[in-house]
Every structure is written in C-alpha cells, then in structure tokens.
Amino acid sequence: MTNAELALSVDTSDEWIRQRTGILERRIAGENETTADLGTRAAEAALRHAGVSAGTIDLVIVATATPNETFPATATRIQASLGMTRGAAFDVQAVCTGFVYGLAIADNFIKVGQAENVLVIGAETFSRILDWEDRGTCVLFGDGAGAVVLQGSESRGGPEERGILSTHIHSDGRHHDALYVDGGPSSTGTVGHLRMEGREVFRHAVVRMSEAIDQALEHNHLTPGDIDWLVPHQANMRIIEAMGRRLHLPAERVVCTVDRHANTSAASIPLALWEAVGDGRIKEGDMVMLEGMGGGFTWGSALVRW
Ligand code: UT7
Fold it and tell me: Which of 190, 202, 222, 263 has the fewest CB atoms lying closer than 10 Å?
C-alpha cells in the first residue's frame, strides 16, 4: 500500500509521510492471512537458508504483539505448520523490541544447555490493530515476518567467534501511555487499537537505543569503529540515521527497509537482516549491531558476529 493509496482515505500526503518518516509504502497481509501464516513462511525460509530441518528445533520463540488468538501462543500454530511434534513453543510480547528479547531468551537457553537449535521469529499483522482513521498512526505501520535459526556450538568466548556476543534488554513500564493498544482480554474484552504519542516516543527512542548501543560496545570492549553493520528497528528514517551517526557509520552501512516496509514492529529487524544477508551485503565474520525500542517502553540491543 503506497502513501498515495493511503491519502485516498485519510487526511495525509505522500510528502508529509516521506519527510517525517522516510516511508514510501508498506505491506498489508491478505484478508485470510494471519501472523502465523507470515511467521511460518519466514521460518521455512530461515530453516532452508540454515540447512536445518524443523525436526531438530528444540524451541520456537515468536515475538509478536498481534497474535492470531489471545491463546494459544502463535508459536504453537507455527510449530504445527512446520510439522514439528517435539520441542517447546511460546510467544514473547515486547512489541517492537520483541525480536531482540527473543534473541536474548534463545541465547540464554542455548548457553545453559536447555536448547541447541532455536527458531526466533518476529511476525506481525499490525494492520489489524490500527485505527485507520487516525492519520497520526495508521501511516506508520505495516505487516511482515522474519526469522533466524540459532545453533549452539562450543565457544571459547572470544569476540572473533561467530554468533551472539551479547544481548541487553530493558523496560520501563511508567511510559505505558505513550504507546499502547486500548483493548485486551482482561481490560475491555476487545482487541483495541494502537495509540501513540509520536513525539514522546521519538524522544525516548533516540536516547534509549543510543544507551543500548553503548552498553553493547562497552560490554564487548569494542568501539564504534569495530561495527560493520547497523540493523536497527525500522520505525522512522530520522531515528535510524541518528543511530547510524552514533556509530559513526556511513549511510550505506546502515540497513534500511522502512521505506518499503514501514514499521513492522517485531518483524522489522529480521526483515532488514534478511535483506542485507540475502543480497550479500552482510558477510560471514561481519560485526552486526541490532537495536530496537517499543511500547512499554521496552528497548535493547544485540551484538552479533555473523
Ligand atoms: O516502533 C515503536 C517506535 N515508534 C516510533 O519510533 C515512532 C516515533 N515517532 C515518530 O516517528 C514521529 O514522532 C512521527 C512520524 C509519528 C510524527 O512526526 P512529528 O514530526 O513528531 O510530527 P507531530 O506528531 O509533531 O505532528 C506534526 C503535525 C501535526 O499538525 P499540527 O498540530 O502541527 O498542525 C499533526 O497533526 O503533523 C500532523 N500530522 C500529519 N499530517 C499529515 C500527523 N500525522 C500526519 C499525517 N499526515 N499522517
């Protein structure tokens, strides 16, 4: 759905959306397509790419704020769609930081030896929770899914080794009112619509994601010069550029898909990652910084040697 198409039904313009956000278009799931459908397709692609069969997966983690149903977890639907009959599957709710949270959980499960192969999926159908009459929010989001397979391996713990080097996740529940959905099973008994104070979120996003990036660098005794790629949460081009400057990275080292996908919440980081890995930009051995921020507020970073 292009900005021009949106401007047919809400009081907005291609120019406003482009200038304020960098978004040109977004993907909307088909009428009968659910979060589990999108997530399944992303998971199948990730398994294929990794050369891993679904039967060897010990854990399926789905980061989503738009599950198919209140319960059971969308992860269990995807587990069944993949033909898996063993392992565990659950959803993680950290909105736009969900994928980073999912990576953190998967990494820790692997490190303590409770899982060896973990599928981490970010999948969303935000189009279903948007108020299509609120121009302040409906122009910003889209639908999508992305996934990765994490596999445990023996490590000496050095930064030259491949895999997740660190994850840092945070939340501060005092900021509920800046970004939330005005419905839910235990409050209104309805699904509700997304509500956001854009400026407030913007301000916090820049500060919090910068902190998370610094934390990852410090933890790994690295400097911005050691980072090859930034794969940020895709909410707004202006925020993405600010994060790139923080790492002293030229624009071509910052992976950006917000122009075509808009904000796909938990799906945005794995979607961007897949683009840059799929087209050969991110290569084995590259140091990749992932960061995100979302409702809660939640925020965090993951540093990965690809
Ligand atoms: O993934 C979770 C994280 N989410 C984010 O990171 C979102 C962060 N926030 C943002 O990206 C930006 O704050 C927005 C893109 C949401 C808004 O940009 P802004 O520069 O902060 O604009 P604003 O909300 O202050 O609105 C400026 C003006 C207002 O008009 P007045 O009051 O100045 O006359 C709005 O009514 O723009 C108006 N406006 C629009 N005009 C045309 C708001 N939405 C639209 C629209 N089309 N879609």
Answer: 190
pLDDT band at 159 (very low <50, low <70, confident <90, very high): low
Q: Is residue 250 part of a domain?
A: yes
Measuring from each residue's beta carbon to the nearest atom of ligand 1, which residues come in under 6 Å?
A: 12, 16-17, 20-21, 96, 135-136, 139-140, 198-199, 201-202, 205, 235-236, 239, 263, 293-294
For residues 106 and 155, what is the distance between their CA atoms, to the nearest angstrom?
16
Residue 156 CB neighbour total at 10 angstroms? 6
Q: E strand or H helix at 47, and its extent?
A: helix 35-50
Against a cut of 0.85, is the pTM above it?
A: yes
- 194 and 216 share a domain? yes
Give the pLDDT confidence of 101-134 residue by residue, as tens digits: 999 999 999 999 999 999 999 999 999 999 999 9
Domain count, the chain: 2
Of 151, 173, 193, the residue at which a domain comes to its end is 151
pLDDT in tens, 252-277: 999 999 999 999 999 999 999 999 99
Inter-residue contact 88 to 7 (CB < 8 Å) = no
Please report whether residue 40 resides in a domain.
Answer: yes
Count the Cβ atoms, other than its own, within 10 Å of residue 55: 12
